[in-house]
Amino acid sequence: MIKPLVDVAQDFPILNRRINGHRLVWLDSAATSQKPESVIQTMDRFYHESNANVLRSVHTLADEATTAFTDARVKTAQFIRAGRPEEVIFTRGTTESLNLVARGYGDQAVNSGDEIVLSPMEHHSNIIPWQQLARRTGATLRYVELAQDGTITIDALERVIGPRTRIVALSRISNVLGTINPITEAAAMVHQHGGVMVVDGAQSVPHEATAVRELGADFLAFSGHKMCGPTGIGVLYGRMELLEAMEPVMFGGEMISYVDQETATWAEVPQKFEGGTPNIAGAVGLGAAIDYLAGVGMDAIHEHSRTLGELAFETLKSIPGVAVYGPARPHAAALAFNIDGVHPHDVAQVFDSLGVAIRAGHHCAQPLMHWLGVGSTARASFYLYNGQDDVSVLKEAILETKRFFQR
Ligand SMILES: Cc1ncc(COP(=O)(O)O)c(C=O)c1O
Question: Which domains does the chain have, with CATH numbers?
């Protein structure tokens, strides 16, 4: 019996809730994870005891807040094995991080006739910024072809990455198919042609140990809220020499070196990209989330997420009238499925009546829905507070949904 990796009742107060008379079963972590008590308390303590703006005043609280904020950057850099803390830029989340690279780096590095390589499984956040960049510069988007099970093969990468490729932007883990994509191989190919590898780590950083340089990522984007942290805080990691050459896109306080009436010069990285008052409590909360995840162990979390993802895949595959998407293995923690003849929103509604929270819709991946030949899917996603019991609940909820609509 696979148990949750943590003491769920003690660490995740929200998971003690009952929904419609049932134990809450949270199978929507790919949308956002629940928050452990330690993160909630750390943020609470910050506001109770140390709240002040950072990097400007000299009083005691400003000093405490600045230290807490700076420590969070150091922890985050260590968590993804960045070369130095300054390579971590705090943003609102993956979406903002990817927009920042597309604007700040893309506008300078990409020209007419250049190519940007994506995959059809990307989240809209990793498609639209590149569409917009292509429109601004005259570059062309090229999509890697997916294999039948939704995976990306090395051959397929070789067919689209070439001398004109300036940027390859891929998710490490798909939020729909649960695929784990060959980033290191894609990075080696694009580097050979002098381009850069942008990694959407929204679903991977919460679930596997990340070492940015080994991964081959020149840029890595992720969100705090999917990894036990608060909403409104995320990260863009970038290699220092790229960040130094990159232009800021948000202009205002704290991102400058010197300003006169006509001109301004920029602060050093990362302040250059963090104009205005940052999400200080969010960063502190992210630091606490990283402590929590590191305490459990990212290798254990990776193993657990895959085990539950693969078990759920196998379990659902064996139910007649249920379609599951993506590869059997390795399969990460997100699993998309459909029940014959039942709209995914109706599936989610029946599930909710049973206390089970899943997502239904296009998952911000309409090109992928098109590729799958469906308008939408249901999606269950697992994390460290789920166990085998929850896979059984998922199966039972599907059987109950089928009974309900057969009646
Ligand atoms: C793969 C992937 N990329 C990007 C995002 C966008 O993240 P955020 O909404 O936190 O900016 C998500 C969120 O669902 C995601 O799953």
Answer: 8-30+297-406 (3.90.1150.10), 40-295 (3.40.640.10)
